[in-house]
């Protein structure tokens, strides 16, 4: 007689024997009934849970990682086939799934060269209530824009079978009993989200003139002050931002005139961000987050 018990291990035998006591005039007696044995069938259930709300990514980025946990919520050891869906809809773009990895050292972090590449057909049984961490690696298309969201669904399906709750697979459960599909359909899934955190840079240059006569005419001897404003837009950041500007022909650089955000910089290639090498100015701005600006000025004299 098969029975289902989500908490009791599949294959466990539940035995029960009744007894009766009586006195038929010759003293107290006890008799036992026959024993009824029930083998607990295997319940096929699985839960998949994404481990982050939004994983930041950038246009064209490769090997972007989504992390999931797959838990065998059934009562018997079961292997689960893994798959992904990247065009579920409800998002702004479809990530390009490259590979699936299993967390080999159980540290919850993807380690290239350490974690195990998932190959369909190589699944190992997951014990009841045990969990494995799964990493999905994907590429973000270069055409995405800041703030776009991409969804990848990880699906884990019981190798024994899936279906409507209560579906039975005769003789395929642990210990030779039946395998019964549980409330999850033995086919769990959850969405992982990428959020594009991109940044763009705009550069605006202007000039003002002070001539030797107190006016603003571009005559020989006039001083030109150039102002360059770099603006970073978007929710991401840019790294290695630098401004370079060649000194115009027919002008001469005014020594020590470079400023960044109103603070003077030296002409030497030293610890500060700016330098002048004889033909151009250079200012290294480093990493700049979206929503910030950097303003540079320098001066030249018309020959």
Automatic annotation (TrEMBL):
InterPro entries reported in the protein's UniProt record: DUF11_rpt (IPR047589)
Domain of life: Bacteria
NCBIfam families registered for this protein in UniProt: B_ant_repeat
The name this protein goes by in its record: DUF11 domain-containing protein
């Amino acid at each position: 007689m098969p029975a289902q018990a989500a908490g009791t291990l599949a294959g466990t035998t539940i035995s029960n024997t009744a007894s009766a006591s009586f006195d038929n005039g010759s003293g107290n007696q006890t008799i036992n009934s026959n024993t009824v044995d029930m083998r607990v069938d295997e319940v096929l259930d699985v839960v998949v849970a994404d481990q982050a709300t939004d994983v930041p990514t950038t246009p064209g980025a490769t090997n972007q990682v989504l992390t999931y946990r797959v838990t065998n919520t059934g009562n018997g050891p079961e292997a689960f086939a893994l798959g992904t869906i990247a065009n579920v809809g409800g998002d702004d773009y479809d990530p390009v799934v490259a590979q699936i990895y299993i967390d080999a050292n159980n540290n919850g972090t993807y380690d290239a060269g350490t974690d195990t590449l998932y190959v369909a057909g190589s699944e190992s049984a997951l014990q009841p209530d045990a969990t494995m961490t799964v990493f999905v690696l994907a590429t973000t298309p270069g055409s995405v824009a800041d703030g776009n969201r991409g969804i990848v669904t990880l699906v884990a399906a019981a190798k024994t079978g899936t279906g409507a709750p209560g579906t039975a697979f005769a003789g395929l459960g642990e210990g030779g009993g039946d395998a019964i599909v549980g409330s999850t359909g033995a086919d769990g899934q959850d969405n992982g989200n990428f959020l594009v955190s991109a940044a763009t840079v705009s550069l605006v240059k202007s000039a003002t003139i002070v001539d030797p006569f107190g006016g603003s005419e571009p005559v020989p001897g006039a001083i030109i002050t150039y102002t360059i404003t770099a603006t970073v837009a978007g929710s991401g950041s840019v790294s290695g931002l630098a401004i370079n500007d060649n000194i115009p022909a027919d002008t001469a650089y005014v020594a020590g005139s470079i400023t960044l955000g109103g603070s003077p910089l030296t002409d030497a290639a030293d610890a500060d961000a700016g330098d002048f090498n004889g033909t151009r100015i250079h200012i290294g701005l480093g990493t700049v987050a979206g929503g910030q600006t950097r303003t540079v000025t320098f001066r030249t004299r018309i020959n």
